[in-house]
Amino acid sequence: MELIINHTSVQPIYEQIVSQIKDKIMHGELIEDTMLPSVRTLAKEQKVSALTVKKAYDLLEEEGFVVTVHGKGSFVAAATQSQMLEERRKEIETEIERTIRKAKSYGITLDELRQLFSIVLDEM
Q: Whole-prediction pTM value?
């Protein structure tokens, strides 16, 4: 599995792993029941600690994206439609927050931003 880890990023490595695997699941690159690389294999491939990969897999399991079967490995879980929809909403919310921060840093008021948002929506 190809992941790109940025060792100089402020984002923790385990979060980079989680976000990239979730992205692959959401875009159909990893489908239900696909076996993920073992913790040690992925750690070796990415040149990171096995504990970092374990933390990422645990978080993916906690969020319902991965199922771990003791002695067999970790597999892509059967994602429900509501899970996928919620994840997409989070992704959009993050983009909107980033845009708002950028607009504020440029001195654009919230009213101006609302107007811009309305204009863009009307043009679609």
A: 0.69
